[in-house]
Automatic annotation (TrEMBL):
InterPro entries: BON_dom (IPR007055). The lineage of its organism: Bacteria, Pseudomonadati, Pseudomonadota, Betaproteobacteria, Burkholderiales. Pfam families: BON. It comes from Ramlibacter agri. It comes from the Bacteria. This is BON domain-containing protein. Gene3D superfamilies: 3.30.1340.30. Residues 65-131 form the BON domain.
Length: 147
């Protein structure tokens, strides 16, 4: 029984270490934990003013990061779908909105690949899916009928 408890304790300690030593988010998690502990030691309500100020700074929009993410998504669209210019990409504070027209067979793969890109906090799908884009040019606009 002691061996089982020791194994579970070691497993929990390892998971906790992985959570707080994560190369991407570990520093942020450690800082938030330190703020929570310090607010408890000072008898402040959890999420005191210092913690709330830090959270507000983290959620501040970064227009350059959004522009970079938009450019990265647009540059990859040509490898993800057959009609990349039929899709409009908007990014605001890491929230990506895709609109326009896409082939139904390509939609799920596109959404999955964009969702997995670094910097994408959330993905909004506003695209119309069609079985065929026949009669449309690369811009997604219906081509005029020939006379």
């Amino acid at each position: 029984m002691k061996h089982l408890a020791a194994s579970i304790g070691a497993l929990a300690a390892g998971a906790l270490a992985m959570y707080y030593l994560d190369p991407q988010l570990g520093r942020q998690r450690r800082t938030l934990l330190a703020d929570l502990v310090m607010s408890g030691l000072r008898n402040e309500p959890a999420g005191g003013p210092r913690l709330q100020a830090r959270l507000a700074r983290q959620q501040r929009p970064d227009p350059q990061a959004d522009a970079d993410l938009r450019a990265e998504i647009q540059s990859r669209l040509g490898r993800m779908v057959s009609h990349p210019r039929a899709i409009e990409v908007r990014v605001e504070n890491g929230i990506v909105r895709l609109s326009g027209t896409v082939l139904a067979s390509e939609r799920e793969g596109l959404l999955l690949q964009v969702q997995q890109m670094p910097g994408v906090r959330r993905l909004v799908n506003a695209m119309a899916a069609r079985d065929s884009l026949a009669g449309r040019d690369d811009e997604g606009v219906v081509a005029p009928a020939s006379a």
